[in-house]
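Project outcomes to date are best conveyed with an example. Our students and postdoctoral researchers have been running inverse folding experiments weekly, and each run begins with a structure described purely in tokens. The record below, which covers 279 residues, was selected by the lab manager from last quarter's runs and is presented without edits.
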């Protein structure tokens, strides 16, 4: 039976994931750059950006992050990943557009090292010009090591039950001007969601103070010298106008896999039976 299971497992593994056509993100950064220390500075890849990354000190690390959801769907990825590895010396980059109305989706992969310590942080921020407006990641405030959202100058929110030390896919939906106060935003966050459809449940913040954004920053740091530096590793940053825009993926082909497995089982069944008792 163990051999049969192995055989079917191999068949399943041979069934490749099929590409699924998807609407494209309006902003994309897969960090398809050569690995190296402080190597993100001045890089100019991706789409939807107005200029290169600035001269911050983030590294490019060999090997991109990947994400597979519970259904076997795999996020489309390219290239390597970035690591914000020096104290409050991350990288910023302007977008081609200013986002301030309608529904906007943002997705990125994030894994934080040393996240559980007090007063250190790592995350992605949305800026309006020189002003940091909102931060997503591990906030430099308790409960430490939990993913959260910080609207600068306003309240923090925490995504209870999440763990910033793990590799997480974070999908943020911003409904501009849909907050409970006129002009404010409604923000919904999905952590490690299914890629094929927007989940019904989310961490929801229904009255986030009014903001817009035209710039993105990746950064980590600490606010107390007693704490180890937190390192945030980032990959596959996307902005789009639909959930599908920011979750492009390949899907397993159940039809082809099923047929292959069935054919394999039929062949298996034609093997000569082993005697279970001595003749
Ligand atoms: Ca990548
Ligand atoms: Ca560095
Ligand atoms: Ca921390
Ligand atoms: Ca607004």
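After processing, the design step wrote out the following sequence:
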């Amino acid at each position: 039976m163990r051999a049969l299971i192995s055989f079917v497992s191999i068949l399943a593994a041979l069934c490749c994931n099929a590409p699924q056509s998807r609407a494209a993100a309006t902003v994309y950064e897969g960090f398809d750059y050569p690995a190296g220390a402080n190597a993100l500075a001045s890089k100019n890849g991706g789409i939807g950006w107005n200029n290169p990354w600035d001269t911050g000190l983030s590294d490019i690390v060999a090997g991109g992050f990947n994400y597979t959801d519970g259904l076997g769907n795999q996020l489309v990825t390219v290239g390597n990943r970035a690591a914000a590895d020096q104290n409050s010396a991350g990288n910023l980059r302007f977008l081609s557009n200013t986002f301030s109305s309608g529904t906007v989706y943002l997705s990125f992969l994030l894994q934080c090292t040393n996240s559980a310590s007090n007063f250190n942080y790592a995350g992605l921020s949305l800026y309006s010009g020189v002003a940091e407006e909102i931060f997503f990641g591990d906030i430099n405030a308790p409960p430490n090591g939990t993913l959260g959202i910080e609207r600068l100058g306003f309240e923090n929110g925490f995504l209870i039950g999440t763990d910033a030390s793990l590799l997480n896919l974070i999908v943020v939906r911003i409904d501009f001007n849909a907050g409970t106060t006129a002009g404010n935003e409604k923000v919904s966050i999905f952590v490690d969601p299914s890629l094929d459809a927007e989940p019904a449940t989310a961490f929801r913040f229904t009255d986030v103070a009014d903001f817009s954004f035209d710039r993105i920053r990746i950064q980590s740091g600490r606010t107390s010298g007693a704490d180890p530096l937190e390192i945030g590793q980032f990959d596959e940053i996307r902005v789009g106008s639909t959930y599908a825009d920011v979750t492009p993926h390949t899907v397993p082909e159940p039809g082809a896999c099923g047929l292959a497995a069935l054919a394999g089982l039929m062949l298996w069944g034609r093997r000569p039976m082993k005697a279970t008792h001595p003749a």
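Residues 115, 117, 120-121, 138, 140, 144, 230 surround calcium ion (ligand 3) (CB under 6 Å). The longest strand covers residues 103-113. The training component of this project remains on track.
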